[in-house]
Amino acid sequence: MPPTASPSQLGSGTMNHWGRAMAGAAALTVAATTYAAGIEVRRWTLRQATLPVLPVGASPLRILHISDLHMTPRQQSKQRWVARLADLRPDLVVNTGDNLAHPRAVPAVLRALQPLLALPGVFIFGNNDYYAPKPKNPAHYLFDTGKKIRGGPLPWGDLRAAFVEHGWLNMTHARCQLTVAGQRMVIAGVDDPHTKRDRYQRIAGRADPAADLRLGLTHSPEPRVLDAFAEDGYDLVLAGHTHGGQLRLPGYGAIVTNCGLDRSRARGASRWGAHTWLHVSAGLGTSPFAPIRFACPPEASLLTLVPRNTGAGVPASAWHAAGVS
Ligand SMILES: [Fe+2]
To answer: Which has fewest Cβ within 10 Å: 121, 205, 235, 294?
Structure first.
């Protein structure tokens, strides 16, 4: 006859099982949070991708895409790493906003970008250039109510003046033509869509089909803006804002994008319509009130643009990460 267990013995066994499971889950959560806050948030990473957006026969063009620095005055490791990106000697630097996370962070941003400011560059601003971060309930990200929580104003005017003084072009509701490495670009940008400052009609119109590259810039990759750029014939749109999801689940990817973009495009390159490519930078920072990143290291992106007849296109999965020492 098989041994039997009394109800009290069964209850005790069940309790032990659940107790061990809960203790294991708690330990795992503590370990993951410690890693996310203590290690990955400073695991600076250079991502590289090849995008077929140039005319047949054109020479490759290298764009360094930086975004979402969210700088505070004491983030010296980030400042040093970003400054060394100039060693890559890109043809063009594109900054898609959210540089600031502190009212006194402008000098720190300029220290980080100083060597890059000597190169041809263009920029737009994001919501965190205009307004200081504030503590938020994490549920705000998961269940966006549409209500925006903003802190006080940030010194974006000082940052803009410094960028312009160094020769970078302010593409906020502006269009320009720029010749870089012998190739003629049309570049246009909008103000931050996340805070509904975008007025695409101010830059609307067919982008010059005779240019070698038509490049659109937006901080937040809102579909309404991406559709407008695609409709006007832009080859490539660069954006930031999503932080790649900031917390990603293995096998699932970004949990949220913090905008209207679908989760699958939260980081990296993807197609937007038949002609246009989209590249979303996962950015280099976090809100100082949520300084964690998981399965989504802080990044800058080196994009090598090549002719459209070079292969059938490069899926986001073709990206690889490489550390810069
Ligand atoms: Fe951001």
So the answer is: 205
Q: Which residues of the chain have pLDDT under 70?
A: 1-15, 137-149, 311-325
Place of tokens 């209850």: 11
Cα atoms found within 13 Å of the Cα of residue 237, Cβ hemisphere only: 31
Max distance between CA atoms of the chain, in angstroms, equals: 89
Q: Where are the domains of the chain?
A: 8-38, 46-315
Instruction: Confirm if 43 and 298 have CB atoms less than 8 A apart.
Output: yes
Query: Which residues, in sequence order, are CB contacts of 199 under 8 Å at separation 6+?
Result: 173, 190, 191
Which segments of 61-186 does DSSP mark as H helices, in order?
Answer: 76-84, 106-113, 127-130, 139-142, 156-165
Distance 288 CA to ligand 1 centre (A): 11
pLDDT for residue 25? 77
Q: Which CATH superfamily is domain 46-315 in?
A: Metallo-dependent phosphatases (3.60.21.10)
Q: Residue 20: which residues within 8 A CB-CB, separation 6 or more? A: none
Q: Please report, as a single letter, which amino acid is at residue 205.
A: G
Q: How far is the CA of 67 from the centre of ligand 1 (A)?
A: 8
CA distance 214 to 226: 13
Confirm if 189 and 122 have CB atoms less than 8 A apart. Answer: yes
Ligand 1 midpoint to CA 68 (Å): 4
Whole-number Å distance, alpha carbon 70 to ligand 1 midpoint, is 7
Helix/strand/coil (H/E/C) assignment for every residue in 31-97 = HHHHHHHHCHHHCCEEEEEEEEEECCCCCCEEEEEECCCCECCCCHHHHHHHHHHHHHCCCEEEECC
* Structural element, H or E, at residue 214: strand 213-217
